[in-house]
Design a protein that fits this description.
The chain is an alpha/beta fold and about 180 residues long. It contains five helices and ten strands. This is F-box domain-containing protein.
Length: about 180
Amino acid sequence: MDKLELVSLTSESHISVNNFLNTISAPHLSELWLVAFTWAGQNASLEVPKVSVNTASHIRSLVLGGEISAGYLAGLLSLFLNLEVLQFASPWERRTFSHTQMIELLTEPGRLPSLQKLSLHNMYFQHTALQRFIDARTELPMTPFHVLELSQCSVLSGRVRIERPFQLRGIRLETWVPPFW
């Protein structure tokens, strides 16, 4: 697996994904796709895999598909400190709380300092949470973050859906077509 650059795990259980990530050693792995729709939902007790440092430090792009608990997502993102691209697709609509919670997780100081692009598909979140994320990413000098891609996303102000085009200060907003839909 020394030359492996991309791994895509599709429709696997979170246990299978964890087992695979716990055993893989691929120093050239730059892109990881975890497109699984059998995650254990909001179960916060999921154990985060122990990916080798040699593998985790080279991953630049992470594609996540499915409903992942905030605790598991935080643990997973803490493994991949050099991520430049994060693409996240939700199979369910109207999960405003969990989607907004994910955006707030990405807003935390020091989280994914190399992130350049965030792509979101089929999600609902509050405009204020999204703007806080953008502000946190763009207020630092020489920030690498510059692109937010949205696909079939709904942005809300309270309970009211904001129709596109809507404005977000300090960022280029683009349309995204997920590669796995």
